[in-house]
Amino acid sequence: MGVIVRNLVAVSLMLIAGERACAAGQDSDLDSIPDALLSPTANDTPTETPTLPAVRWTLRNTVQYNAPRSVDFAPAGANDDALWAGAVRVTAHAEQTVSPNWRIVTDGFVRADMIEARSPLMSENLVCQLRETYVDDTLSFARFFSLGRLNVKNGVAQGFNPTDYLRRNTSTDTTARDARERQNERLGSLMVRYKSLWDDGAFSIALLPRINARAGHWWTDADVYGQQFDRTNPDNALLLTVSRRVGADGEAQPVLFYEDDTLHLGFNYSATIGNSDIAYVEWSGARRAAWHRQALTAYCDSTTTPPAALQSLCTSGERRFRSQLAAGIAHSTASDITTHIEYHYNELGLTDDQWDAWVTAAETASMQNDSAMLGALWSMRRTIQDNQDTLPRHSLFIRTHANDFLTADLGLTLIGRLNLQDRSRMLQLGLDYVHTPSTTSEITIAIFTGDRRSEFGSVTDDFTLTYRLNHHF
């Protein structure tokens, strides 16, 4: 694999040397390159250097109520039995232009979590983190160099992004069930990145160093000021993307990601159909073990003979080439309503038999009061959640958003997930209202239904109700 990395770097340097300079750039999503950037004007060039950084402040208050259900066998997290939880968060986003070509960007937050039966002043409830902090150098009108902690996003799908390789262990908001919201709110990764744009495409390469966990050091600690770079940079990695327009209405993007001696191959494609539809597909493949095998390996290896209930899970899901896929279509109406419908295939997820074995093992561990096995089983769901992945092999996703719903300044978002294997469902309805240009509020309800042995029927809540108040200043 070392030879592969050296070859990839060599190819990347050749592409850099032979590129054609043209426009200015943004992030790495396929649909994030607006025409204005591909055809820049003279006004895009910075002409002034401000004396003070421009800072945007946001105050967010969140309260969530959890309606518990009786699922005695289901492994749960440490705080999953809390009836309510809340958080107060102050976010600051600052940009300082140092020269016409250089700028410094910082985005961080301070958050105090409040959970039933726990003091909000406990150290584990206080968090101060930098989501992004980096230096940008505009090498020319279409070439950019960045160094620092960046949130690099990738993928064309809405509900599941197989090629968004930097998403694992980066979530900062456990109350968000919208994949795009989690993507925007997550921690960035430490990297050096080069990006270039030309008339009909873009090229990007990022190198990420491994950061080892070291107790007593702010860059890896999980305390109040710990930045947890060991979470976002668990190994040396290389991310390479090339985007190119295909025909008049399509865009393709091959992606290469190398980490932990594993080469991931990815591909994105989107195309406009008529005046109101966009079809898209996102695929990734690599030699990997299934999620349950990754999560249960430590427990299975620690026992000479795994319990009978876990035998099939400990011996299945071996490392081999596995694919992940998201394919969908987006439809927009003249009344500003956009709907995404997607099919998700995840070969790292569980088959029917594997999920049945997981439930049976959870029931057995609960009856035997085996906390070690319950903890190992919970780690599988936690691993999938932390990696922002899907649990079953086959699922459907739908997302509908309407602006000015019923009245001006009121927006509606409907999100649904259907497990095609056990027919369990998650449905979330959200309303957001603009009170003033600087104040907005959101209320969402997420409902989980299905058989008690199903994915969503075995979660610890019947529904969750969340309210947020945001003020920008």
Share of residues in strands: 35-45%
Number of distinct helices: 8
Global geometry: globular
N- and C-termini, Cα separation: 49 Å
> Which percent range fits the helix content?
10-25%
**Contiguous runs where pLDDT drops below 50 for at least 5 residues:** 1-47
Biggest sheet character: 18 strands, antiparallel, barrel
* SSE-based structural type: alpha+beta
How does this model look, in words?
It is a single chain. This protein is of the alpha+beta class and 473 residues long. 17% of the residues lie in helices and 43% in strands. The N and C termini lie far apart (49 Å). It has an 18-stranded antiparallel β-barrel. Strand 9 (250-259) and strand 10 (262-273) form a beta hairpin. 32% of the residues are buried. The longest helix has 16 residues, at 2-17. Helix 5 packs antiparallel against helix 8 and helix 7 (352-367) packs antiparallel against helix 8 (371-386). It is globular and about 65 Å long. The protein is built from eight helices and 18 strands. Mean pLDDT is 84; it is low at 1-47.
Short description:
With 473 residues, the protein is α+β, with helices and mostly antiparallel strands. Helix content is 17%, strand content 43%. The protein has helices at residues 2-17, 35-38, 179-185, 229-232, 291-302, 311-315, 352-367, 371-386, and strands spanning 54-68, 84-97, 102-115, 126-140, 143-150, 189-198, 201-208, 237-246, 250-259, 262-273, 277-288, 320-332, 337-346, 394-402, 410-419, 425-436, 439-449, 461-472.
